[in-house]
Amino acid sequence: MRKLKKYYGFISFWLLDSLLLYLATVVYPAAYTLGTFRLSVFWAAVVAGFIWTVLVWFSKPIVAIVKLKVPDKMKTFFYLLANFVALWLVARMAPYSGFGVASFVWAFLLALVAIFVQYLMVKVIKF
């Protein structure tokens, strides 16, 4: 059980990101789409949420490998940018992820909502 504790943060973000994708599709169906002829809406949310979470989760180690310093004041902007890029990449892989977005503006707006909700989750759960 103790070994699994380090994965709670990733799994929590995965569930949250999948839920955000589903809610965005329900609230704004003209801007976001989930599902393909291979993936149902549920599985598209799970797969796209997983890919989104993996891309954001590994953005910090990639920045560390490149030796790019992100000041504390810029971390929110960094995660906003990471969420936006990850969402845009997931949307470009629509045949495989099952998630589509109408334009980069909608991807940016979803990234804004995501960074706020992710911040709240980090403060509540305290990873």
Automatic annotation (TrEMBL):
The chain crosses the membrane at residues 7-31, 37-57, 77-95, 101-122. The keyword Membrane applies. It comes from the Bacteria. It holds the Pfam family Phage_holin_4_2. Keywords: Membrane, Transmembrane, Transmembrane helix. This is Uncharacterized protein.
